[in-house]
Design goal:
With 939 residues, the protein is of the alpha+beta class. The protein has 28 helices and 33 strands. Among the domains are: 1-30 and 747-870, Isoleucyl-tRNA Synthetase, Domain 1, CATH 1.10.730; 165-211, no CATH class; 291-494, Valyl/Leucyl/Isoleucyl-tRNA synthetase, editing domain (Isoleucyl-tRNA Synthetase, domain 2), CATH 3.90.740; 875-937, Ubiquitin-like (UB roll). The two termini are 68 Å apart.
């Protein structure tokens, strides 16, 4: 028996879908009007409607293309955006590409091709895949971060940051010219008590540069000789190797660009409260910023004071030694020429002099990353520097060590060790035979076998003037004492460190910076932007032996001699300058790209103020302003989102944007996971070639082991959207991904399960189209009461689910309503059209086709979304669970307006309740309206 000629199947989907995709493109269906400029369009059907800005975390276009896990969030925002358009909003839903970065550069090096060429090909592939899935983007707003027309403005934003300082009195960034004016007018004192007029031009510039929000400094960095570049912490694995290439990574102090994000610590923390973000993400940002209330304490030495920060100044009497980071600036000057007499042998590390011990220990520490050094290893290592510090409260001379568990980039790079009340300090003290003194008691007898750390509610002991005080009172007392005696002060510190902003790579944004004869940075004038990358045949970074810790970066741009040296007139005549050889990190373009979506073709501004304030300005009940919905993975919870917030706040302070935050609402989608299979060697085999037999799995006749995890090319378990669209159609793919479970939850991919979504769309089609003739089956007749009730319940439920991103329950409601229609002998036209409208955001191609066949012209994209009639949402009856002595024994259904006596009578008349009562005395019947009935019987 042959298939009906007009049945909805993969073949028909393959004919319908590209035709409607062409229609949307040719008719500019999803072009969104701006209030001003070249994208303004007063004739647009939603030109005067309230706005919604919906945005995805844009992808890095790799050569592998998309697998089915990538579009999960993209489909969800597309469904949401399509719903909002139908619900009456002017919706901005753009897409771009985060196209600078190390993976493309490395592939270009190995293939001998240009990164720009590879990037263009990868973007073409992504664009085609997204189009095939039916995404409704405003393609006029598309860009890649590697487009010079885009990174011109990345460089412009950098210059705004470079040309600003943080005014603590105003609690905001201000133009650097204001700081210069303060020095010139004597309203700000010059370091060293010199007069501004007495300083040379270079000295003045150095002082100003120390205040800039973007600055150059010597900083400890993650240096990877095998890759020839500095890596950010997120690019280093927990075992101290590069995420890409698995090369060892070392800590080196190198000259780098930094962003003074720490100036914004309190605002970044405070403004989390006005954001509609998942609480888990807020907690991660709070922890990363790491606000701590405590005190600075100065320990005196012959080489100067060692300043520490502690949140527990009340434990100062318990400090029996100090630890400096190996990189601490005082280590060299404190190091003794020889070992003091009588020290334990383990303090020396086996070396004849402190200098030799420290040199060896530093070399070993440099082979570890910050992540490794902070790992809570059982064996604590360190070495005595041969010198002592004075505890300010009791005058004790306490030994000073260096140890790798203290980091130069955190706090002051020094700690006062209180081994009785800190696990790490306790382990170190035990290893080095250092005294341990209890100074806080929790009321129990402490035997000294382990650190007593749960002491917040304890009482201070063995601490002279603090004895008997509770912890909080003791903190206040000691801070006052330190301040009175000039040995410290109360303060607030933050764990957040300044942002390392240099990369020794080719494929990244060039800095708009040159250096003059003084070696100090000079901004390239804005009118000369963009500073474009030079074309190079050899742009591979200089790499070294993987373990060559003494090597130093040699940026590829240094080989572009004609580009590096440039003649420029910056206002004082033509001079020779040298360009910055580092490039910006891949975070740069993604730290502001939401702004460019609002006005992407503007050649004169990041964004016209009218467009920016329309799309991102604060609104009633949204004081933060920003993108209305931002969807992406939780893996970007801290760094990308923190960096973007920082850049946005600088621009806000300088008056370039109207909102204090870039993203008002954040939603993290889960992952799509998949089974992977390994053979006896532990090597992954192609998942699609594995056969299941009686609960066991085989590849080419050999039994393999199944595991479960993230979908990826390395695990050989990738399923591409292209093959699913080919075999089932894009609409089926969309419906299946949205039906798999709550959007925020990770879930397994199962290709065999997709047939359920396929059959739903087949039934939808069959309800409206005669499969044999292709004619429309609907009738111009009134719907019965039951159908109207089902329809309006579906309208309300689907509308609520779309708005709240409950896509899986929206699909369930659509299926339920469609199944009701299957049972009708005649389908009223109004009901059929409502069903199509409800489904259109989820499965747009088939619904466009059905809408057209139902006799409508144009697109369904701007047809008003149905609104439920409340009259059909009222339930006629209510179901009550009935308990007997606390156990549910039956359920009864009564009229919603039934009186209490009638409900009680119906419960007692129920056969199951009578059986449970079994003739016993009914002592009480409790009726909880619209909730339950409870029957209490004797015995």
């Amino acid at each position: 028996m042959s298939e009906p000629k007009h049945r909805y199947d993969a073949g028909l989907a393959g004919e319908i879908e590209p035709r409607w995709q062409d229609y949307w493109e040719n008719e500019a269906t999803f072009d969104t009007p701006n209030p001003a400029g070249s994208l303004a369009d007063s004739q647009h059907p939603r030109a005067d409607a309230p706005k919604k800005f919906v945005m995805d975390m844009f992808p890095f276009p790799s050569g592998a293309g998309l697998h089915v896990g990538h579009p999960l969030g993209y489909i969800a925002t597309d469904v949401y955006s399509r719903y909002l358009r139908m619900a009456g909003y002017n919706v901005l839903h753009p897409m771009g590409y985060d196209s600078f970065g190390l993976p493309t550069e490395q592939y270009a090096v190995t293939s001998g091709r240009q990164p720009a060429e590879i990037t263009a090909e990868n973007i073409d592939r992504y664009r085609a895949q997204l189009r095939r899935i039916g995404m409704g983007y405003d393609n006029r707003r598309e860009f890649a971060t590697s487009d010079p027309s885009f990174y011109k403005w990345t460089q412009w934003v950098f210059l705004q940051i470079f040309n600003s300082y943080y005014d603590e009195r105003a609690d905001a960034a201000r133009p650097i010219e204001e700081l210069i004016e303060q020095f010139e007018q004597g309203r700000r004192s010059v370091p060293g008590e010199r007069e501004w007029d007495d300083l040379s031009a270079v000295e003045r510039r150095r002082i100003i540069d120390e205040h800039r929000l973007a600055y150059v400094t010597e900083a400890p960095v993650n240096w990877c000789p095998g890759l020839g570049t500095v890596l950010s912490n997120e690019e280093v694995t927990a075992d101290g190797r590069s995420e890409r290439g698995n090369f060892p990574v070392f800590t080196r102090k190198l000259k780098q660009w930094m962003m003074r994000i720490t100036a914004y610590s309190e605002r970044l923390l405070r403004d989390l409260e006005i954001l509609e973000w998942p609480e888990s993400i807020k907690i991660m940002q709070r922890n990363w910023i790491g606000k701590s209330e405590g005190a600075f304490i100065d320990f005196s030495t012959y080489a100067g004071d060692i300043r520490v920060f502690t949140t527990r100044p009340d434990t100062l009497w318990g400090s029996t030694y100090m630890v400096l980071a190996p990189e601490h600036e005082l280590v060299d000057s404190l190091t003794a020429e020889s070992w003091p007499a009588g020290i334990p042998s383990e303090w020396t590390g086996g070396y004849e002099t402190p200098g030799a011990a420290i040199a060896a220990y530093r070399a070993e520490a440099a082979r570890k990353t910050d992540v490794e050094r902070q790992a809570d290893a059982k064996d604590k290592t360190g070495v005595f520097i041969g010198g002592y510090a004075t505890n300010p409260v009791n005058g004790e001379q306490i030994p000073v060590f260096i140890a790798d568990y203290v980091l130069a980039g955190y706090g002051t790079g020094a700690i006062m060790a209180v081994p009785a009340h800190d696990d790490r300090d306790f382990a170190f003290a035990r290893a080095f035979d250092i005294p341990i003194r209890q100074v806080v008691s929790d009321g129990t007898d402490w035997d000294g076998s382990a650190a007593l750390t749960d002491t917040e509610s304890g009482v201070v002991v063995n601490s002279d003037i603090l004895d008997g005080l509770n912890v909080e009172a003791a903190k206040r007392r000691i801070i006052d004492w330190l301040s009175e005696h000039g040995r410290g002060e109360g303060t607030t510190t933050y764990r957040l460190r300044d942002w390392l902003f240099s990369r020794q790579r080719y494929w990244g944004e060039p800095f708009p910076i040159v250096y003059d004869e003084s070696g100090l940075p000079v901004a390239v004038p804005e009118e000369q932007l963009p500073v474009t990358l030079p074309e190079m045949d050899d742009f591979s970074p200089a790499t070294f032996a993987a373990d060559d810790v003494t090597s130093a970066p040699e940026p590829p741009l240094g080989r572009a001699k004609d580009w590096v040296t440039v003649e420029m007139d910056l206002g004082d005549g033509t001079k020779t300058y040298t360009r910055e050889l580092n490039t910006m990190p891949n975070w740069a373009g993604s730290s502001w790209y939401e702004l460019r979506y609002t006005d992407p073709s503007n050649p004169d501004q990041v964004a016209d103020s009218e467009n920016e304030s329309y799309w991102m300005g604060p609104q009633e009940n949204v004081p933060s302003g920003g993108v209305d919905l931002y969807v992406g993975g939780a893996e970007h919870a801290v760094l990308h989102l923190l960096y973007a917030r920082f850049w946005h706040k600088v621009l806000y302070d300088l008056g370039h944007v109207s909102s204090p935050e870039p993203f008002a609402r954040l939603f993290n989608q889960g992952y799509i996971q998949a089974y992977a299979y390994t053979d006896a060697r532990g090597v992954y085999v192609p998942a699609h070639e594995v056969e299941e037999r009686d609960g066991r799995y085989f590849h080419q006749g050999e039994e393999v082991k199944r595991e479960y995890g993230k979908m990826g090319k390395s695990l050989k378990n990738v399923v591409t959207p292209d093959e699913i669209c080919r075999d089932y159609g894009a609409d089926t793919f969309r419906v299946y991904e949205m039906s798999m479970g709550p959007l925020e939850v990770s879930k397994p991919w199962e290709t065999r399960a997709i047939v359920g979504s396929y059959r739903f769309l087949q039934r939808l089609w069959r309800n409206i189209v005669d499969e044999e003739t292709g004619d429309i089956k609907v009738v111009d007749a009134e719907a019965d009461e039951e159908t109207l009730k089902a329809m309006h319940q579906a309208v309300k439920g689907v509308r609520d689910d779309y708005f709240n991103l409950r896509m899986n329950t929206a699909v369930a409601k659509l299926i339920t309503f469609n199944n009701h229609l299957v049972g009708l002998t005649r389908l009223p036209r109004a009901v059929a059209e409502t069903m199509v409208q409800l489904t259109a955001p989820m499965a747009p191609h088939i619904c466009e086709e059905l809408w057209r066949r139902l006799g409508h012209t144009g697109t369904i994209a701007y047809v008003d979304f149905p609104v439920a009639d409340e009259n059909y949402l009222v339930e006629d009856t209510v179901t009550y669970p009935v308990q007997v002595n606390g156990k549910v024994r039956s359920r009864i259904e009564v009229a919603t307006d039934a009186e209490r006596d009638a409900i009680e009578a119906a419960a007692l008349a129920d056969e199951k309740i009578q059986s449970s009562v079994n003739g016993k005395e009914v002592k009480k019947v409790i009726v909880v309206p619209n909730r339950m009935v409870s029957v209490v019987v004797a015995g």
